[in-house]
Amino acid sequence: MLVVKDLVVNYGAVRALHGVSLEVKQGEVVTLIGCNGAGKSTTLRSVSGLIRSVSGSIEFMGKPITRMAPHEVVHLGLVHCPEGRGIFANMTVAENLELGAFTRSDTAGIAKDREWALSLFPRIRERLGQNAGTLSGGEQQMLAIARALLTRPKLLLMDEPSLGLAPQIVQVIFKIIRDINAAGTTILLVEQNAHMALKVAHRAYVLEVGRIAMEGKASDLAASDEVRKAYLGVHETAAH
Q: Looking at residue 92, what is its pLDDT?
């Protein structure tokens, strides 16, 4: 579904990605894990067209999208749920959801998807008339995901969905990620909570300083001593 080959990205004079290659197959949850500054968010922003690469290629559903504008990428069904949520604080929750469907004209389909999104997030249903800026951090994250679902994504890019949230809300968010995937949406997930990410994903890539350092089944990486020590907070003394 998504094929990224040898992607090179600079921020000014600084090289952020050094030839990143990855792929996502239909129906999968694939996660990118790594330390802060490893290039995880840069990879997603490059895929969705928010950042231009120096070289390399990106294909989505067999179509080259490397030079496409972000709105063109969205029309193909590739949707980015950004870090920091990106909600419109001065608009109501309902208006934020409506914006999620800006590429669509199928009124009945939009209503059906809106109802499904609200069934996933009952808290959001209770707050449809509120300004989005008055929501808690967890509720804003739920709104950002619900809004992305109104676009009816084929592939959903999720950037740090659990960042800054209370542990019980993190559990809710990851259950929703499973539910969204089970309903047929493919997901590419960037997540600083490597433990939860590897539990929910089918496959994983480890990014280190702009390069893919490891890749494989999520369960295999979760069991790897190297990954456990570096990203899961498991040290040899704790294993005994």
A: 96
- The DSSP bridge partners found for residue 15 are 10
Alpha carbon distances (Å) from 119 to 66, 123, 124, 204: 35, 9, 9, 29
- In this structure, the chain runs to a length of 240
Encode pLDDT of 150-205 as tens digits.
999 999 999 999 888 888 888 989 999 999 999 999 999 999 889 999 999 999 99
Q: What proportion of the chain, given as a percentage, has pLDDT over 90?
A: 75
pTM for the full predicted model: 0.91
Run of H or E including 96: helix 93-100
Tokens for 104? 């669509």
For the sheet with 2-11, list strands across it: 14-24, 2-11, 55-60, 63-64
